[in-house]
Write a structure and sequence with these properties.
single chain; mainly alpha; globular; WH_DNA-bd_sf; MarR family winged helix-turn-helix transcriptional regulator
Length: 152
């Protein structure tokens, strides 16, 4: 590890600033079809993962369950998601509706435009390096032992 490199400023603040900028970028593209980036991501996860319990969905999205519940409410109100009884009396299942699949498909075009625009602005090499770095950071934060093993 190179100890001569010293980060300047607060890592959390810098990451939050960057994520807010990127979120605004995607939200601007998705606003034309009446979605926010978080809503598009939620529809995409439910479509990909199939009917699943809210807790499983929150875990898959790295999201607090209360935040997931708050974010799902407008999607349920629009008829894009349903929450029904799960496998037992105490569980529930989140499922995407036909209208939700259509809205997600409409959103995928806006999302792709946002993705392409961001890649044009930052450059494919920088985006690729950012993905590698973010994936490594998330792996390490999810499993601190992985960092120790990787560096051996």
């Amino acid at each position: 590890m190179n100890t001569s490199i010293k980060p300047s400023g607060c890592t959390n603040l810098k990451l939050r600033q960057l994520t807010r900028m990127v979120t605004r970028h995607y939200d601007q593209h998705l606003a034309a079809i009446g979605l926010k980036n978080t809503q598009y991501a939620l529809l995409s996860h439910v479509l990909r993962l199939g009917p699943l319990r809210p807790g499983e969905l929150a875990k898959a999205m790295q999201m607090e369950p209360s935040t997931l519940t708050r974010n799902m409410q407008p999607l349920v109100a629009q008829g894009w998601l349903t929450i029904s009884a799960g496998g037992d009396a105490r569980s529930r299942a989140v499922q995407i509706t036909e209208a939700g699949i259509e809205k997600r498909e409409e959103g995928s075009q806006a999302w792709q435009a946002a993705q392409d625009s961001l890649q044009d602005a930052l450059g494919l090499e920088r985006i690729s390096a950012l993905h590698v770095l973010m994936d490594a950071c998330m792996t390490t934060l999810n499993d601190p032992e992985a960092e120790a093993t990787d560096s051996l």
